[in-house]
Amino acid sequence: MANLTLNDLHENIRTSVQLALAEDIGAGDITAQLIPAEVISQARIITREHAVLCGQAWVEEVFRQVDARVCITWHAAEGERVTPNQLLCELSGPARSLLTGERCALNFLQTLSATARRARELADIVSDLPVKLLDTRKTLPGLRLAQKYAVTIGGCHNHRIGLYDAFLIKENHIASCGGIAQAVQTARQIAPGKPVEVEVESLEELTQALEAGADIIMLDELSHDDMSTAVKQTAGRAKLEASGGVSEGTLRTIAETGVDFISIGSLTKDVKAVDLSMRLY
Question: Is 61 a catalytic residue?
C-alpha cells in the first residue's frame, strides 16, 4: 500500500479542521471578545520537549478558517527533529483570532508531532535493515488520515487505510468462510486486484495461506524461531508481516528474522501529546 501524502489530504484537512473549530467555538469565543477587535498581536509557538515536527498544514488551515488575516512564519520544517524551547513558528494578526485558533491549532500540532516522534524513534532502531514498519487502524477517531500521514513523516509506512482498500483475512473471517483457501478465493472474486492478506497463527496455517496464493501473510505472535522458519519456508512467494508482541525491546530481533513488514499499533494508539506553548507578545 502506498504512503499518504499531503496531496491526498487537502479535503480531509479542511473537514477535520472545520469540525474541530465547530466543537471548540460553538456560537462564538466569548473570552476573546474581552479584547478590542482592532488589536493586532504577534505570537510564538515553541516546543517544551523533543519531537518531530508534524502538522503544519493543519495549523495553517485552522487560522485560514478562523481569520485569513493571520500570517504564519515557520522556523522549523515539517519532519525536522526539534528540541526543548525551540521556536517552531511566529504568528501575527488580530489578537482575537490568534486566541480563538490557539487550542485547535496546538491540538493538531501536538498530536501529529507526537505520532511522528514515536515513528522516528522506532524507525531509528531498524534503520540499517530492509524491514518496513507499518501502522495499523488503531488510530484516534476522526484523525486516521492525519495520524497515518504523521507516521510517514516519522519514517515509517502506512498499512491499509481502512476496510475498503485491502483484504485482511483474520481468524474470524477464516472460520466464517470455512477455511483459508475459501476466504482467499472469495476475496479474489469480490475485488480483483485488491491486495489479499491472511493472518496466520502457526506454520501449518502459513502453508495453507501460501497454497491459497495470499499476497501478504501476517504472522500473528509467532515465536522468533518460527518467524525465521516462516521466512525460509516462504522463500519470497509472499510478503511476510510480523504482528503482536512488538516493543522497543523486541523490534530489532523481529526485524532480524527477515520479515518484510512489522505492524505496530502503538505508533498511533499510545501517543503522548508533545508539550507545546503559544504566547502572545
Answer: no
